[in-house]
Specification:
- The structure holds 2 protein chains of 2 kinds.
- Chain A has 7 helices and 11 strands.
- Chain A has helices at residues 24-36, 67-77, 81-89, 196-199, 201-212, 222-238, 243-247; strands at 7-13, 40-46, 59-62, 93-97, 107-109, 115-117, 124-140, 148-160, 167-173, 182-184, 187-190.
- Chain A has a 6-stranded mixed β-sheet with strand order 2-1-3-4-11-10, with helices on both faces. In chain A, strands 5, 6, 7, 8 and 9 form a 5-stranded mixed β-sheet that branches.
- In chain A, α1 (24-36) packs across α5 (201-212).
- Chain A is globular.
- Chain B is built from 14 helices and 19 strands.
- Helix content of chain B is 33%, strand content 22%.
- Chain B has 2 domains: 41-293, Mur-like, catalytic domain (UDP-N-acetylmuramoyl-L-alanine:D-glutamate ligase, 3-Layer(aba) Sandwich); 305-448, Alpha-Beta Complex (Protein-Tyrosine Phosphatase, Chain A).
- The longest helix of chain B has 17 residues, at 2-18.
- In chain B, a hairpin with a 3-residue loop joins β12 and β13 (255-258).
- The termini of chain B are far apart.
- Classes of the chains: A alpha/beta, B alpha/beta.
- Bound molecules: zinc ion.
Chain lengths: 248, 451
C-alpha cells in the first residue's frame, strides 16, 4: 500500500540556528497538513557542519534568525549552492522567511560595512542597519488567492528586482512599505517572518496542494479549523473599515 | 541650569505627589532644562545599576531592602520608571540643590536598551545583568540585538556583575579587566532539568558562533556551557548558589539563605544581590545572607500568585507576561512540578498584546512549551481571549490531545468553564494586561454563583 502513496521530500535548513519568531511553525503546520492529505513526508534537517544531498527535495525551507546568525548561515550554505540550484531547476520549491530570505540575493551588507556575496538566486540585495522596525501587514497573495497577514520585525532593508511575492494592502507600525518579497520560479522569498504558513491557512493549503498534487482533505483537521478562525479574526482586525462604514 | 533643573524636578514631583501620581515627567522636564544633569550629580556612595530581561525589578528590590536593613540610606527608583526620565526623576528628586546625594547606596533598575542613555555620564559603580531572554520581541527585536544595545551602556569604569549561567550575558564582560559573576552551581541541582523546550537559545557560542555543549541545564539557555571552538565557557562565579533544598539555599557552601519557594529565577536573583552586597556595598557575607533570607518580596514568584474561589472551586492565578515565553514556560513548569496525583487544569488567557508595538504578533506562541500540556497530569486546558483559537491550534500541533482542550474567547465564560470542568488543582495564567478581565470575571461568577 505504502508505495502508492505520494511522497513529499522536505529539507529544513538551519532549524537550530535560524529559529527566531516561531519559524518552526511553518514546518509543523505544513507537514501535518500534507499528512492529513495522505502524503508521506520525508523530512531532512540540515544545519552547520552537516552534509547530505538534498537536490531531490520537493521543498526547502529556511526560517528567520538574528542578523549575526543569518551571516553564519550564509557562510555555511555556500557549499549547498549547486544542490539548491538543481532542486529549483527540477521544479522544487524554496521558501525563505525573514532574514533567511536575504541569503538568496546577490549580496548582504553587514553592520561592519563588509559586503558579502549572496547565493545570487534572485536579483536584489540586503543591507543590515542598527535601527529596528516592526510592522503588521495584510498583503495580497496571488498564489493563495486570498490575502496573507503577517509581521516584519527587521533591522535590514531589502531591494528585490524580481516579481514581488506579495503586494502590501494594509500596514501598521513602521515596517517597510511597497511590494514585498520575490517570486522567481519555485523560489519564494519574503521578509514576513514567523509562522507565516500556519497563520495563513489559504497560503498553507495552496502550497501543500502544489507540493503534493493531492486534493485537500474533505474535512479540515481541527488544528487547521482553529488556525482559520485565528486568521479570519486578524484579517478583520488588520483591515481598516471602508470609508462608507466609517461615515455611517 | 543644573539648579533650575533640580528645582523644577522637585516642584513637579511634589505637585504630582499631591495629585497622587508618580511619574517620570519631572525627570523629562529636568533633562530638557539641563540635558547633562545626571553627569553633574555629586554621588560619593556606590551606584548599582540592575538590568536584564526577567527579574530585574525583584533583584533591584532585594538589593535595596538588603542595603536598607544593613543600615545604609538608599535612593532607589523602584517606584518609578526604569528609563532615563524615571532615573532622573528619582535622582534629582533625592539630591540637594547643589546636586549632592546624601546616601549610602544608590540602586537603579534600568531597561536593558536604555542603559546606554541613562548611564552615559553617570557611570554606575557596578552594573548587574541578570539574564537575556526572548522578551517583547516586537519591541526588542531579539536577545542578540538587546545584548548589543546593552553593551553600549556598559562603559569603562563600571564593574560588570554578570550571570555566569547565561552565555550571552557572560559575553558582555569581554573587554573588561575585572568582572564579577554569580550563578547557580550545577552541583546544586538535585534533579537535572530534562524537559524539552519549544526553542533553545544556547546552541551557538555568542563569541565565535561555534556549536556549544552543555554539561547541565538550569533552565532555558542557562547552564554549564562551553564552546570547543574558542574555549568560551561558564566562568567560575565570584559567588554562587551551591545547594538548593526545601526552604533554603546555600551560597558558597556556607551561607544559608531562607527561601519560601523553590524558584530557580529567584535563586539567581538572590545570588546577584548577595554578590553586590558583599563585593560592592561591603556588607559581611553572614549578615547579607541573614537579611536576604528575611525579605518577602513584593515582586517575587510567590507574590505573583493569588488565589480566588468561585462556584465552589479554588482557582490559583499566576501572573505571566505576554510576549515573554520564559514567564509562561517557567510558570507551566512550576505548576507541573508541584502537581499532585489529582492533576492540574489550566486556563490560559491571551487577549490584548502591548497595543503600542503589536496587536497581532503570534511568533511568541511558538516559543511556549505548550507541548507540556499534553503530559499525563494535565486534566483540562481552556484557552481564552482573542488569541484562543490560535493557542488551541498551536497546542494541537504540539500534541496536546483534543479532548482535553476547550476554546472560549469570552473570558468570563472561559473562567466558568475551568471552574466547572477543570480536574484537579485549577490554575489561570495571563499577563497584567488581561488580569483585570480575569479578576472581574471571578468576581462576577462568585457573586452570581452564590445566589
Ligand atoms: Zn566559541
Amino acid at each position: 500500500m505504502a508505495e502508492n502513496k505520494t511522497t513529499v521530500r522536505i529539507t529544513w535548513l538551519y532549524g537550530d540556528l535560524m529559529n527566531l519568531y516561531g519559524s518552526a511553525g511553518n514546518m509543523s503546520s505544513l507537514m501535518r497538513l500534507l499528512e492529513a492529505m495522505g502524503a508521506v513526508v520525508e523530512l531532512q534537517e540540515l544545519s552547520v557542519g552537516g552534509y547530505s544531498d538534498f537536490s531531490g527535495s520537493d521543498f526547502i525551507f529556511l526560517g528567520s534568525g538574528t542578523e549575526r546568525r543569518a551571516l553564519m548561515a550564509l557562510e555555511d550554505i555556500r557549499r549547498f549552492k549547486d544542490q539548491i540550484a538543481r532542486c529549483l531547476e527540477a521544479g522544487g520549491t524554496l521558501l525563505a522567511t525573514g532574514t533567511g530570505s536575504a541569503l538568496f540575493g546577490r549580496s548582504i551588507k553587514g553592520l561592519d560595512g563588509g559586503l558579502r556575496e549572496g547565493l545570487g538566486f534572485a536579483a536584489g540585495s540586503t543591507e543590515f542597519y542598527e535601527k529596528r522596525r516592526y510592522g503588521e501587514y495584510v498583503m495580497s497573495c496571488p498564489l493563495a488567492g486570498e490575502p496573507v497577514v503577517g509581521c516584519i520585525n527587521t533591522s535590514s532593508s531589502v531591494r528585490w528586482e524580481e516579481q514581488p511575492l506579495f503586494e502590501v494592502l494594509h500596514r501598521t507600525g513602521d515596517g517597510p512599505e511597497g511590494p514585498e518579497g520575490a517570486l522567481k520560479g519555485g523560489l519564494m522569498l519574503t521578509q514576513l517572518q514567523g509562522p507565516l504558513l500556519w497563520r495563513n491557512p489559504p497560503l498553507l493549503e495552496a502550497l501543500a496542494r502544489k507540493l503534493s498534487g493531492l486534493p485537500l482533505p474533505e474535512c479540515r483537521p481541527l488544528w487547521l479549523k482553529e488556525a482559520c478562525s485565528g486568521y479570519q479574526r486578524l484579517l478583520r482586525q488588520l483591515t481598516p473599515p471602508p470609508e462608507k462604514a466609517k461615515n455611517a | 541650569m543644573m539648579k533650575i533643573a533640580i528645582a523644577a524636578c522637585k516642584l513637579l514631583r511634589a505637585a504630582l505627589k499631591k495629585l497622587g501620581r508618580g511619574s517620570s515627567l519631572p525627570g523629562a522636564v529636568a533633562l530638557k532644562i539641563c540635558p547633562g544633569a545626571l553627569g553633574r550629580l555629586r554621588i560619593d556612595c556606590p551606584v548599582v545599576a540592575v538590568t536584564g530581561s526577567n527579574g530585574k525589578t525583584g533583584t533591584t528590590e532585594l538589593i535595596n531592602r538588603l542595603a536598607l536593613e544593613a543600615g545604609l540610606k538608599t535612593v532607589c527608583n523602584s517606584e518609578g520608571s526604569n528609563q532615563i526620565e524615571g532615573v532622573a526623576a528619582c535622582l534629582l528628586g533625592a539630591c540637594d540643590l547643589s546636586g549632592r546625594i546624601d546616601a549610602g547606596a544608590v540602586i537603579l533598575e534600568s531597561d536593558e536598551r536604555f542603559c546606554q542613555y541613562t548611564f552615559k555620564e553617570l557611570i554606575p559603580t557596578a552594573t548587574v545583568v541578570g539574564n537575556l531572554f526572548r522578551d517583547q520581541l516586537t519591541r526588542n527585536g531579539h536577545s542578540e540585538f538587546v545584548a548589543k544595545e546593552l553593551k553600549k551602556g556598559l562603559r569603562p569604569g563600571t564593574l560588570p556583575v554578570l550571570n555566569a549561567d547565561d552565555p550571552l550575558v557572560t559575553s558582555l564582560g569581554e573587554g573588561f579587566q575585572r568582572v564579577l559573576s554569580f550563578g547557580v552551581s550545577p552541583a546544586a541541582l538535585s534533579e537535572p532539568e530534562d524537559a524539552s523546550h519549544a526553542y533553545f537559545d544556547g546552541a551557538f557560542c555568542p563569541r565565535c558562533g561555534g556549536r556549544m555543549s552543555y554539561r547541565s541545564h538550569l533552565f532555558a539557555h542557562l547552564g554549564d556551557y562551553s564552546c570547543a571552538s574558542c574555549g568560551f565557557c561558564r566562568p567560575a562565579p565570584t559567588h554562587e548558589v551551591t545547594a538548593i533544598e526545601d526552604g533554603a539555599i546555600t551560597v558558597d557552601g556556607r551561607y544559608t539563605i531562607a527561601l519560601s519557594q523553590r524558584d530557580m529565577m529567584h535563586a539567581q536573583n538572590l545570588a546577584a544581590a548577595f554578590t553586590v552586597a558583599v563585593e560592592v556595598l561591603g556588607i559581611e557575607p553572614e549578615r547579607a545572607a541573614a537579611i536576604l533570607g528575611g525579605i518577602e518580596l513584593k515582586n517575587s514568584m510567590v507574590a505573583r500568585v493569588s488565589s480566588y474561589s468561585a462556584l465552589g472551586r479554588e482557582l490559583t492565578f499566576m501572573l505571566c507576561k505576554h510576549e515573554n515565553s520564559m514567564a509562561y514556560n517557567e510558570t507551566i513548569a512550576s505548576i507541573l512540578r508541584g502537581a499532585t496525583p489529582d492533576g492540574v487544569s489550566l486556563l490560559i488567557i491571551v487577549d490584548k498584546l502591548s497595543r503600542k508595538y503589536s496587536a497581532s504578533d503570534m511568533s511568541w506562541l511558538w516559543d511556549l512549551d505548550l507541548h507540556r500540556l499534553g503530559e499525563p497530569l494535565v486534566g483540562r486546558v481552556v484557552f481564552s481571549g482573542g488569541f484562543a483559537h490560535d493557542l488551541c491550534s498551536r497546542a494541537l500541533l504540539a500534541g496536546v490531545p483534543a479532548d482535553r482542550i476547550l476554546v472560549q474567547p469570552d473570558i468570563e465564560k472561559a473562567t466558568s468553564l475551568i471552574l466547572e470542568h477543570g480536574r484537579g488543582d485549577l490554575f489561570a495564567l495571563t499577563c497584567f494586561t488581561d488580569a483585570p478581565k480575569l479578576r472581574e470575571s471571578i468576581r462576577r461568577l462568585s457573586k452570581n454563583g452564590r445566589k
